[in-house]
Amino acid sequence: MRTILRVEDLLVEFPTPHGQVRAVNGVTFQLATGERLGIVGESGSGKSMTLLTIMGLTPPPGRIRRGEVWFKERNLLEASPQELRQMRGRHIAMIFQDPMTTLNPVFRVGEQIRESLRVHQYLGEERVPASRRKALEKQRVLRLMAEVGIPAPEERYEAYPHEFSGGMQQRAMIAIALSCDPEVILADEPTTALDVTVQAQIMRLLDQINRQRGTAIVLVTHDLHLATEFCDRILVMYAGQIVEQGPTEAVIRHPKHPYTQGLLGALPEIRPEKTPLMPIPGEIDLAHLPPGCPFAPRCHRAMEACSTPPALLEVEENHQVRCFLYGGLA
Ligand code: SF4
């Protein structure tokens, strides 16, 4: 598999009354074609901000201070706004947590999916009369709606978002993401707003898209269980940094970082044998991080060395950890 998306040393800062806060702090990772990568961590870990920055959607007043985001041979951080607009949807698409904040309540669902095709000129520039083009676009939208499991697409094409259930709205969002057949889908907590049964249906749909279309998927979630079920590889973030990454099996069966162990320890269904049930005290406070390991104030294994920043080091093949229990200084 070749690398399709590569993030290098990405750093995103936000001004706050306490000074500049690093929401994303030196994040580096790769995504291979057709791969399923999970990014997990609590709120404030930087996972959603990483996705938004890849899409060129860093919310103001956030600033990208350094880093690179490569899609194939193009550094997206150097792309013009027009090039980025073309890239979004056409090559990389995003599914957001809450479809109601993304779907426009005053437009019919089918038209919103068709708009995505139109904006990205998915059907090409050939000289097709406008009425014929519209009919072709509508046919494609109806096929997409059927593919993502929206029943009676002809009828539902004309419906407004409020006439859809939460699960159906998320399916419509997935249809928009799929409309231009992207090579990468970034899914930001795509099932958080849904009940458990609908959540399982949406994850099955993403599974089907990945298998049948070969679309690479980055799944951002606070739900380690969900990431375990779905992803080939897991990347654990804390306070804007990657603290552990590796194949799902390795990270789940042999978690190394105390933070990953804490996250797993709270999940009885996948907690590794002999890992004590140990909730993580406190919460991430980006404005008051210590100068060394950011996890130190919450870490039950903190020691003197932790007052300097640890580096991300390989502890097993393809399994990396940022913790002094396993290696040296940054
Ligand atoms: Fe805990 Fe120290 Fe490892 Fe940080 S570096 S996770 S404080 S043991």
In short:
The chain contains eleven helices and twelve strands. The protein has 330 residues and is α/β, with parallel strands linked by helices.
Secondary-structure element order, as H and E?
EEEHEEHEHHHHHEHEHEEHHEE
Number of helices: 11
**How helical, in percent, are the residues?**
25-40%
Query: Averaged pLDDT, please?
Result: 91
Strand-residue proportion: 15-25%
State the CATH topology of the largest domain: Rossmann fold
CATH class assignment of the largest domain:
Alpha Beta
Name the poorly predicted regions. none
User: How many domain modules?
Assistant: 2
**Major beta sheet summary:** 8 strands, mixed
CATH architecture of the largest domain: 3-Layer(aba) Sandwich
Shape: globular
List how many beta strands DSSP finds.
12
- Ends apart, CA distance between termini: 30 Å
**Ligands and ions found:** iron/sulfur cluster
Q: Supply the helix-strand structural class.
A: alpha/beta
Strand order of the largest sheet: 6-7-8-3-9-10-12-11
Q: Looking at this structure, what is the CATH superfamily of the largest domain?
A: P-loop containing nucleotide triphosphate hydrolases
Give Rg in angstroms: 21 Å
